[in-house]
Write a structure and sequence with these properties.
By secondary structure, the chain is mainly beta. It has 6 helices and 19 strands. The strands form 3 sheets. Strands 1-2-3-6-7-8-10-13-14-15-16-17-18-19 form a 14-stranded antiparallel beta barrel. The N terminus is likely disordered.
Length: 381
């Protein structure tokens, strides 16, 4: 076989399902949906409404306008399928800079490598080594529209180099562009009877764009366009102790695979009809196209709940839970995480425990992030 098919790659990153009749939504470049930093991963893969950090680009770039440091640099490493193979991983690097108290810009790079694969035509063939990979290069600009609300726009260049070299066929990477539109709300600190508090909320329309094509004239595949909304509250117990609770809901804005001809199964003919839908029309139709109606549409939402305890802004403990319907992928897992801050540097770790019958590719994996907060401080009332 001279190239990695989309189906094969989706299976590689853990989309293995128990029943053939489940209408599971799959997309190209699914690495864009993996939590790329240890802080968010430690809270159940959430980030759209959490407080600002250097990795906010993936979750909600509007948060950068509320950053409390002028600049932030973050790098992270996520091993993938570590119990099976050691050279598949997701690398992430991010940088933001506040232009003033009202606005900020940010850039980031996510790089997903499938390691080295040796190709042989026969047992006696010398073999060719290839290194399939995917990457996303992001840029965003965020602006406060009021003291408590900001919005951001982002652009993303996506390159998916999964095609094996072939002397007869062009082996260039498949490329695409997408945009994000995000908003973030952060209330002023409110005095309650026994503690102070702060409300948080956010949304992010991400990976909005056309489809990606791996062969000239071949099948086009949907990007993982999605809508994420979330909210949270910070319990500020005193100047040393803060507990943040956050919840998040996400829906892929991609059409639901279905039996168009009514023969009782989803065939290649049904798939041809499915793939002929454009990326933008698929976004709008994704809210109403589930064959079983509104009840199935609700199953296409994932939800997560996360908590973070911070002591003296120097030590953090985190936990979270993520849930996906058994008919739509069956990802269910608990997470634990911790963070340690010393002066301008912060180290974060996270660990995942799967609670699903479907094995999670990040199970029993320790994820790492390193952050540097630099420049002058900004006070957000």
């Amino acid at each position: 076989m001279r190239k990695i098919s989309i189906v094969f790659f989706v299976l590689i990153i853990g989309k293995v399902f128990a029943q053939d009749d489940q209408r599971v939504i799959t997309t190209a470049v699914p690495f864009l949906t993996i939590a790329a930093d240890a802080r968010s991963a430690g809270m159940g893969d959430i980030g759209v409404a959490t407080s600002t950090d250097a990795f906010s680009q993936q979750w909600n770039p509007a948060k950068f306008a509320f950053a409390e440091q002028q600049m932030g640099i973050g790098v992270s490493y996520t091993p993938y399928l570590e119990s099976i193979i050691t050279d598949i991983s997701l690398l992430n690097a991010s940088f933001y800079n506040k232009l003033n108290d009202q606005s900020a810009f940010a850039v980031s790079l996510r790089y997903f490598t499938l390691g080295e694969i040796e190709l042989r035509q026969s047992i006696d063939d010398q073999g060719t080594t290839v290194k399939p990979n995917e990457l996303a290069l992001d840029g965003s600009y965020s602006l406060k529209l009021s003291p408590t609300f900001s919005m951001a726009v982002g652009g993303r260049f996506i390159s998916s180099n999964l095609k094996f070299p072939d002397t007869n066929v062009d082996s260039q990477a498949a490329n695409s562009f997408a945009v994000d539109i995000a908003g973030y709300y952060r209330s002023r600190e409110i005095a309650y009877n026994n503690f102070d508090g702060r409300w948080r909320g956010g949304f992010n329309l991400s990976n909005i764009g056309g489809k990606i094509q791996y062969d000239a004239g071949g099948q086009e595949n949907f990007l993982p366009s999605k809508l994420s909304v979330g909210g949270g509250f910070d319990f500020i117990l005193d100047q040393d102790n803060v507990i943040g609770i956050t919840t998040e809901f996400t829906k892929l804005l991609v059409p639901t695979p279905q039996d168009y001809d009514g023969d009782g199964e989803i065939t290649s003919a049904d798939n041809d009809i499915y793939q002929n839908e454009s990326g933008f029309s698929g976004i709008f139709n994704s809210f109403t196209d589930a064959p079983d109606g509104f009840s199935e549409e609700l199953k296409e939402f994932t939800w997560a709940l996360g908590a973070e305890y911070t002591y003296q802004d120097a030590f953090m403990l985190r936990t979270g839970y993520f849930n996906e319907s058994e008919e739509k992928g069956s990802r269910k897992f608990f997470t634990l995480g911790a963070g340690f801050k010393f002066k301008a540097a912060q180290v974060d770790l996270s660990y995942l425990f799967s609670t699903s019958q479907v094995r999670n590719p990040l199970e029993n994996t320790l994820r790492f992030s390193l952050t540097f907060n630099l420049g002058e401080e900004y006070y957000n009332d």
